[in-house]
């Protein structure tokens, strides 16, 4: 297994670790410790989960860059990389919804879009074509990562400016996600040839 695929697998293995820090209530003094600066408060376990998420999300660009630069692109990598991205985003959104930090409908819309576009790509592969990532798809990914990071960090540092940056950005991420999904289907409608079904 080459280096890019190992990095991708590491991203997948970071997901359950992140969820433990986010969702499991451990009876330990350090676990419930909160970083407090004025009115701002962030539990230590949530900070650790946020750092794991940020590291995991950043590995997405790293593994792709290494694979392209050193000609290490493999079929396994093509399968694992988007799967890892979707697992990471879906799991943290579900956790944030369970914690009351994100509206459940936003999590559902984003996850549903990921399934729909993945299905479209699979149909395209069966037809012998590949659907490349669009600029809207890239914007969607970046917005989601920044929005989720802001939610995990309890709107740091915008909490001191009284700006609900985390809420604004997760709504923006949902809108871009919806638009990018529609964009994929409109531009690739020829893939969905219903006359063959």
Automatic annotation (TrEMBL):
Family, per entry: Belongs to the CDP-alcohol phosphatidyltransferase class-I family.
Cell compartment(s), UniProt: Cell membrane
Keyword flag Ubl conjugation: no
Organism: Paenibacillus apis
Any Pfam family matching the protein: CDP-OH_P_transf
PROSITE patterns according to UniProt: CDP_ALCOHOL_P_TRANSF
Lineage start: Bacteria, Bacillati, Bacillota, Bacilli, Bacillales
NCBIfam families in alphabetical order: pgsA (TIGR00560)
Superkingdom of source: Bacteria
Reaction equations catalysed: a CDP-1,2-diacyl-sn-glycerol + sn-glycerol 3-phosphate = a 1,2-diacyl-sn-glycero-3-phospho-(1'-sn-glycero-3'-phosphate) + CMP + H(+)
Enzymatic class: transferase
EC number, UniProt record: 2.7.8.5
Alphabetical UniProt keywords: Cell membrane, Lipid biosynthesis, Lipid metabolism, Membrane, Phospholipid biosynthesis, Phospholipid metabolism, Transferase, Transmembrane, Transmembrane helix
Function: This protein catalyzes the committed step to the synthesis of the acidic phospholipids.
Signal peptide boundaries: none
Main location: membrane
Annotated pathway: Lipid metabolism; Phospholipid metabolism; phosphatidylglycerol biosynthesis; phosphatidylglycerol from CDP-diacylglycerol: step 1/2
Transmembrane regions listed in the UniProt entry: 12-35, 47-66, 87-112, 168-186
Any Gene Ontology CC annotation: plasma membrane
Entry protein name: CDP-diacylglycerol--glycerol-3-phosphate 3-phosphatidyltransferase
Mode of membrane association: Multi-pass membrane protein
GO molecular function, a single term: CDP-diacylglycerol-glycerol-3-phosphate 3-phosphatidyltransferase activity
A GO BP annotation: glycerophospholipid biosynthetic process
